[in-house]
Specification:
Number of helices: 2
Number of strands: 0
Distance between the termini: 20 Å
Protein name: Molecular chaperone DnaJ
Order of helices and strands: HH
Structural class: mainly alpha
Organism: Paenibacillus profundus
Radius of gyration: 12 Å
Keywords: Membrane, Transmembrane, Transmembrane helix
Length: 47
């Protein structure tokens, strides 16, 4: 498993947890997914 994938999965799980607290699970997952992709793109090595 690549490091970028782990970052995305972690953000999705954190987003789902926050969504459970606020009773909006699916939007929390989607926001976590978006944040995960943004963080992954920040840590992406340049060729």
């Amino acid at each position: 498993m690549k490091q970028g994938d782990i970052i995305i999965y972690a953000c999705v799980i954190i987003g789902a947890g926050i969504g459970l607290i606020l009773n909006y699970v699916f939007p929390g997952v989607l926001i976590g997914l978006g944040i995960g992709y943004l963080i992954k793109s920040l840590f992406k090595k340049e060729d």
